[in-house]
Design a protein that fits this description.
Layout (H helix, E strand, L loop, with lengths): L3 H21 L8 E3 L19 E3 L12 E7 L2 E10 L3 H16 L5 E3 L8 E13 L8 E12 L4 E13 L5 H30 L4
Parallel strand pairs: 1-4, 2-5, 2-6, 3-6
Antiparallel strand pairs: 3-4, 6-7, 7-8
């Protein structure tokens, strides 16, 4: 028989061993893959006008769901969800702001490009409203289309007088329902719109802004 003074230590050891066995059975969370979207040299049209004025890119507006690093998917018309196990590398508005800033910088068509509140003087501001940035399944589709809709405003800065507005839209079929293929469709669609927004901004800001 086990002496009384040893019963409680042995019980504690047995309990710890039991808990350790239970803990080892708990499954680890699925790893999260982080995806980035970057401006590419191929985004810029071949013949962009050179402009002397400076531009600031305001952080885009979005809904609360899109103002995050989650990747949105619409499995049915009135349902909006997010992909599990996959994130953007930054919140979507910050990610798009970086893409637009880098696109203008890499184009070489404008002298100064900055982010709002960076302290760099600017004459024109670009403001984007993110209306859609999601993978959309049709009524009977097994593979989604990526749908991007961006409403853009050019503002005289810092007065914020509206110069012009335009809505940009892109729909790109994904190669499959796998997340890497969906992200590739996002990348393609955003690249197309980045090129269109650059050309539109440089054409319209130049014509309405005083040059030095």
């Amino acid at each position: 028989m086990t002496p009384k003074r040893l019963r409680f230590p042995l019980l504690a050891i047995a309990l710890c061993a039991s808990l350790a066995g239970c803990i080892s059975l708990i499954s680890e969370p699925n790893p999260i893959t982080v995806y980035s979207l970057r401006a590419k040299e191929t985004d810029a049209p071949d013949a962009l006008p050179k402009v002397p004025w400076s531009l600031t890119v305001i952080r885009p507006n979005s809904t609360s769901l899109l103002d995050s690093n989650r990747i949105a998917v619409r499995p049915s018309p009135n349902v909006l969800k997010v992909y599990h196990g996959a994130n953007w590398s930054d919140s979507l508005p910050d990610l798009l702001q970086t893409v637009f800033v880098e696109g203008f910088e890499d184009s070489g068509a404008i002298g100064t490009v900055s982010r709002q509140n960076s302290g760099v003087p600017a004459e024109v501001a670009l403001l984007i409203d993110i209306r859609q940035f999601e993978a959309v399944y049709g009524s009977s589709a097994k593979i989604p289309d990526v749908v991007i809709q961006l409403h853009a405003k050019l503002l005289e800065y810092p007065s914020n007088r509206v110069i012009t507005v335009r809505t940009f839209h892109a729909t790109v079929p994904a190669a499959s329902k796998d997340i890497p293929d969906v992200v590739q469709a996002f990348d393609q669609g955003l690249g197309t719109l980045n090129a269109e927004i650059m050309a539109w901004t440089l054409a319209n800001g130049r014509s309405k802004t005083k040059t030095k």
